[in-house]
Design goal:
5-stranded antiparallel β-sheet; 1 helix; 79 residues; mainly beta; 5 strands; globular
Length: 79
């Protein structure tokens, strides 16, 4: 994947590992596409950077499997 720290990424609500996907935005469908800024990584046993920490708001961080993220281009995230 390379180092995407600080990059904007997108993922489905259902891909959130922690907290429970129903907690942050329970009104959305589980296939809703969310975006946020990648702020860190977490390992899983011997697998490095298996999970990513994504800031979806100033107060909310979620953990998403790194392989479920899609890097956003400048056009997609806007000015």
């Amino acid at each position: 994947m390379g180092n995407w720290d600080g990059e904007w990424v997108a993922f489905r609500l259902a891909d959130i590992y922690l907290p429970d996907p129903r907690e942050p935005v329970s009104a959305l469908a589980t296939d809703a596409l969310l975006m946020g800024k990648l702020v860190g990584y977490s390992d899983s046993g011997a697998e490095q950077e298996a999970f990513s920490v994504v800031a979806v708001s100033a107060e909310q961080r979620v953990i998403v499997p790194t392989n479920m993220l899609r890097r956003l281009s400048v056009v997609e995230k806007g000015p």
